[in-house]
């Protein structure tokens, strides 16, 4: 038995779920999201909740059971609260600012890095050393944050670079003479 899979996903007020075949469409205040489940599970919408049950007892059906329930829960959270990743920039002269739909990053290169923000995600820079990525799709928010971080990942000697807020960077001691 999947502990995660057997819990129903509650639909908060203002959120509706529409089922057509194996595709579920969730509408809420922050937009509409869809997910297509595999044929190994059965989806059902009843009493303001979405339930997922496996078809058979095969290993794949049991794997898909918990994963599908988690995906549906993420859809519901995405259309109600949304997802958010916060990044911080550390380093002398390292800064970020938004100009329209472009995030301009000064990261110690000889040129400024222009990061084009994809559709469906909003990026803000409340301070010069902070970047906030928000959206209704968890995967897309995480991928955009990872792409921004990739431009200058934190290095272990001085800790300079772009890191997730609260991320611990293991520091190394420099070479001794």
Automatic annotation (TrEMBL):
GO terms for cellular component: ribosome. The keyword Protein transport does not apply. Signal peptide: none annotated. Residues 12-82, 91-164 form the Large ribosomal subunit protein uL6 alpha-beta domain. Keywords: Ribonucleoprotein, Ribosomal protein, RNA-binding, rRNA-binding. It holds the Pfam family Ribosomal_L6. Coiled coil: none annotated. It comes from the Bacteria. InterPro entries: Ribosomal_uL6-like, Ribosomal_uL6-like_a/b-dom_sf, Ribosomal_uL6_a/b-dom, Ribosomal_uL6_bac-type, Ribosomal_uL6_CS. PROSITE patterns: RIBOSOMAL_L6_1 (PS00525). This protein binds to the 23S rRNA, and is important in its secondary structure. It is located near the subunit interface in the base of the L7/L12 stalk, and near the tRNA binding site of the peptidyltransferase center. Part of the 50S ribosomal subunit. Belongs to the universal ribosomal protein uL6 family. This is Large ribosomal subunit protein uL6. It comes from Thioclava electrotropha.
């Amino acid at each position: 038995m999947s502990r995660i899979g057997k819990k129903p996903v509650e639909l908060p007020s203002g959120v509706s779920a529409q089922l057509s075949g194996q595709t579920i469409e969730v509408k809420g205040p922050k937009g509409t999201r869809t997910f297509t489940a595999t044929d190994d599970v059965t989806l059902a919408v009843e009493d303001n909740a979405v339930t997922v049950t496996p078809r058979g007892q095969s290993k794949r059906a049991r794997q898909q059971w918990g994963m599908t329930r988690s995906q549906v829960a993420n859809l519901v959270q995405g259309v109600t609260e949304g997802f958010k990743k916060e990044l911080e920039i550390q380093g002398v002269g390292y800064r970020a600012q938004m100009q329209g739909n472009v995030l301009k990053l000064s990261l110690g290169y000889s040129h400024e890095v222009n990061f084009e923000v994809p559709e469906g995600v909003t990026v803000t820079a409340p301070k010069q050393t902070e970047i906030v990525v928000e959206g209704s799709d968890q995967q897309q928010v995480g991928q955009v944050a990872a792409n921004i971080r990739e431009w200058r990942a934190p290095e272990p000697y001085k800790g300079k670079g772009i890191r997730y807020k609260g991320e611990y960077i293991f520091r190394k001691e420099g070479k001794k003479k």
